[in-house]
Amino acid sequence: MSNRDEILKSLEVVIDPELHRSIVELDMVRSIELSGNGVVDVTVSLTTPGCPIKGHFQTAVAEAVSALDGVTHVNVYFDVLNDAQKAALQQKLGRGSLPDGSLAQVSNVLCIGSGKGGVGKSTLTANLAAALVGEGKRVGILDADVWGYSIPRMYGLGSTRPPVSAERKIIPLEAHGVKVMSIGFFVEEDAAVVWRGPMLHKALSQFLKDVDWGELDYLLIDLPPGTGDVSMTLAQLLPQAQFLIVTTPQQTAQKVARRAAQMADKVSLEIGGVIENMSSFTTPSGERFTIFGEGGGKELADELDVPLLGRVPLTMPLREHADSGTPLVIEDPDDPASQAIHQVARGLIAMAPLELPVLPTLDEVVTVADQAASPKPVGMSLPMA
Length: 385
Ligand SMILES: Nc1ncnc2c1ncn2[C@@H]1O[C@H](COP(=O)(O)OP(=O)(O)OP(=O)(O)O)[C@@H](O)[C@H]1O
Ligand SMILES: [Mg+2]
Known about the structure:
Layout: H1 4-10, E1 15-16, E2 21-22, E3 29-34, E4 39-46, H2 54-66, E5 73-80, H3 83-92, E6 106-113, H4 121-134, E7 139-143, H5 151-154, E8 173-175, E9 178-182, H6 197-209, E10 216-222, H7 229-237, E11 242-247, H8 251-266, E12 270-277, E13 281-282, E14 288-289, H9 296-304, E15 308-312, H10 316-324, H11 328-331, H12 336-351, H13 362-373
Parallel strand pairs: 4-5, 6-10, 6-11, 7-9, 7-10, 11-12, 12-15
Antiparallel strand pairs: 1-2, 3-4, 8-9, 13-14
Helix pairs in contact: 4-12, 6-7, 8-9
Bound molecules: adenosine-5'-triphosphate (ATP) and magnesium ion.
């Protein structure tokens, strides 16, 4: 007859379909009891009482344990995680490290990066944000390309200065249902801004801490090309962020994108997936050309062991709409590029970790009460040039 450890080991194959990890790793196996006649009772703790995936656990646990030597019958019971266990789970899922302040109400931070310039990071960020809004999500974009910002243009936002709230927080501009923040709102058009080292770090941390992002399901961060300072700074400021790597199907682009992935790995940022852009071009008569080659995205995703979230074809309207101020996914949702981007959005939603409510600790409650009594201004010195 198998012992408790063997039974626990066998449960490692039972994956929580929402959290994408094993119930053993998530500490959701509450108890295992064996009786002499080969009957095993397993209790699994759920995150919520009415968990719709109970049936999945029931079958998977029974199957895994029944396969062991000497087991004649498996009973699966359920209970619910208490608050302390939920907090521990949250920590385990990387949500315990969410910063205080402006980003405390942001559920998912996605950095869109690549090793190489001009592969479509900004175009995809702009359209993906609009696609997520179309899926009913609350979305913000932080344009972290302080040298070559392009999101204001893609969202039809000029160089209007964002207002500042009574609490001295910068209020993001809003277009197409997306909250947008960019250095482009603070500098003269085409002004050559030299951002380096500490100043850059300060600018980015202000964008994260002193901007009133409010409640967001997704904050998308459009990175500048390369693997430089901005990415390092963001990794320090946002340990919970995920990286989405954009590549073209070309071998060389894929090689450079791999470097971006290595950088993400070095600074311990999780890579959420790969998006292949400029995948192919189909003429009006239906002839398909693979202008930048084929297969690069899939190869990179396989190598990094992350999902290929989508292949976005080259289409003229995608380029035209980047210049016109309205994302293509809004203007023409039937364009093949729009459809591919919507698919990426749906993939991201399916991947997102389960939301667990975050309850303020007593300390936080006291701090909030204190602040209400005497509002203190937070550091506000944008622009930092
Ligand atoms: N799938 C596509 N079909 C057609 N044009 C595209 C596509 N993806 C991007 N483009 C065009 O390619 C150019 C570069 O795209 P974009 O600015 O989004 O790239 P980027 O990676 O953000 O560049 P940078 O590294 O300079 O920030 C733009 O003119 C954009 O309109
Ligand atoms: Mg860009």
